[in-house]
Structures are given as C-alpha cells and as structure tokens.
Amino acid sequence: MSTGFMDLPRDIPVVGVRTTSGRGFTPEELAAQAADRIVSVSDTAPPAIRDQAVAFKGLVEKLVAEYLKQAVRSDRTTVYNALQDAGHPDLAELIRRL
Fold first, then answer.
1. Does residue 8 lie in a domain region?
2. Which end of the chain is least crowded, N or C, by CB within 10 Å?
3. Count of domains in the chain?
C-alpha cells in the first residue's frame, strides 16, 4: 500500500551522520559520500560486474569532486564581487585568498 510519499528502500540506510571537527567537509569527502549513494553493487555480484561498478564509482567520485571544487570557486567569486560592490575591498581580498 502506497502512502503517497516516496517509497524508500528497506535494505539501504536512508540517513547517516558524518561529522568533522573544526572545519567543513572537503569536496573530496563530499564526492566520496555522493559516489557511495550513486553507485552500489552487491557483495554477491559476479566479480567482473563488481569490479566494473567499483571502477565506475571511482570515476563518479573524481567527477563529482571536480564539480564541487568549481562550485566552491564560483561561490567565492560571487562573495568576492558582492563584498567589492558593498564597499569592502579588504574583506573581498581575504575571500579571494582562501
């Protein structure tokens, strides 16, 4: 029976908690988390299929990391420009140097 809500898989954890101390997550850490959610393969899959999925997961992780790094750079450019426009060139320069 459907409740109208998204059907969630019963055998895959839906929620997990990961933390860092004194910093946010790096693009690489977030990319690894995303790849874990995007690509999975059963331990009982044939070795050739499992190996192919693991290799694909590595490629997904690298690609997602690159796009996350671009997003960080783009956001910093946006913040830099907003600070410049608001008359805070000193703060803008600090952001640019990050």
1. no
2. N
3. 1
